[in-house]
Amino acid sequence: MNAKIPIALTIAGLDPSGGAGLQEDIKVFTELGVHGISVATAVTVQSSFGLRTVEPVRPEIVSEQLKCLLEDREPKAAKTGILTNQSLAPVIDFLKQTSVPVIVDPVFASGTGFILADSNIVEVYRTEVIPHSVLVTPNVPELQSLLGMSITSSVYFEGAARKLIDMGAKAVLIKGGHTEEDEVVDLFYTKTQARRFVKPRRNLKRVHGTGCALSAAIVAYLVRGATLLDAVASAEAYIDRKLADVLYAGEGAPIINHLKSVS
Ligand code: PXL
Predict the structure, then answer these.
(1) Whose CA is nearest to atom 6 of ligand 1?
(2) How does DSSP classify residue 237?
(3) What does the alpha-carbon distance between residue 141 and residue 149 come to, in Å, rounded to a whole number?
(4) CA–CA separation, 86 and 56 (whole Å)
(5) What distance in Å separates the CA atoms of residue 94 and residue 99, rounded to the nearest whole number?
(6) Calpha distance 84→88 (Å, rounded)
(7) Orientation angle between helical segments 157-166 and 140-147, nearest 10 degrees
(8) Mutate which of 212, 214, 239 to test ligand 1's pocket (most atoms within 8 Å of Cβ)?
(9) H or E segment to which residue 103 belongs
(10) pLDDT at 262
(11) What is the pLDDT of residue 263?
(12) Helix (H, G, I), strand (E, B) or coil at 139
């Protein structure tokens, strides 16, 4: 019996192409040595060419998945990915009552621009989701939606992070991949800590699922016992190593390569 096997939970959408969402999260958890359990909030229809449509999972089934898993062994940390209108209520109930640290990776659109969340969801994230998370990890378009303002450069990330803290976030990781800057600047920010992760901008086609992989890696390192800042730093380094050798599994966008371990 391996009674102490560390468990990580992902609450996210299913990506049949295997590059993002639940599938990606579980692969990251496994590669980083933690067992993944998962709650499906949506089924997407997509290939490496992009996302065609999304079918939400009914709220009762989201709630039953959570209840059933939590009656078993409790995860040490969790993350959220796609949350639909239907899955928001049961996930918010979970966030309000759990002592498990939850990282919120806001997903409002697919990488190819398919809109996954309406403006109403963004408001619910502001008021009900983010304040119950230990960390929120927006990219620039998601940051702009959350703050309702244009942010074009990492120069503005600290001010933006402070606004998210004012909104109730305990910690923020802004991902700078979408700016026009020569380097990618990610900013980790809390009331007492600020740390920039500056990385070369790799000359790659858009890699599908990197945001999912980053938040999943943070969860995995938390489960392994790291502090939040150390978990973020280790996850940043892990993704950077992964981006050096991506996988062309389909004819469209590449994905993170879990066939070659770098953990
Ligand atoms: O990268 C955001 C994302 C998250 N989860 C699922 C997705 C996508 C983007 O396509 O399909 C399931």
Answers:
(1) 21
(2) H
(3) 10
(4) 7
(5) 9
(6) 6
(7) 50
(8) 212
(9) strand 102-104
(10) 60
(11) 56
(12) strand
Tokens of 168: 């109730």
CA 99-104-108 angle, to 5 degrees, is 150
Q: Which atom belonging to ligand 1 lies closest to the Cα atom of 14?
A: 12
Q: Could you give the C-alpha distances from 170 to 36, 180, 188, 227, in angstroms and in order? A: 24, 28, 11, 14
How many Å apart are CA 218 and CA 246, to the nearest integer? 20
Distance between Cα 47 and ligand 1 center (Å): 11
Nearest CA residue ID for atom 1, ligand 1: 209
| Count of C-beta atoms within a 10 Å radius of residue 208 | 30
Site residues for ligand 1, CB cut-off 6 Å: 12-13, 15, 20-21, 44, 46, 51, 81-82, 107, 110-111, 209, 211-212
Consecutive H or E run containing 12: strand 7-14
**Which two three-digit tokens encode residue 192?**
């007492």
pLDDT in tens, 1-17: 556 899 999 999 999 99
Distance between CA atoms of residues 107 and 80, nearest Å: 9
DSSP string, 24-67: HHHHHHHHTT-EEEEEEEEEEEEETTEEEEEEEPPHHHHHHHHH
Would you say 54 and 20 are in contact if contact means Cβ atoms under 8 Å apart? no
For residues 225-244, b (16+ Cβ closer than 10 Å) or e, as one string?
ebebeebbbbbbebbbebbe
Contact by Cβ (8 Å): 47, 77: no
* pLDDT for position 3: 62
Please tell me whether the overall predicted TM-score, pTM, comes out greater than 0.90 for this model.
yes
What do you get for the CA distance between the two ends of the chain, in Å? 25
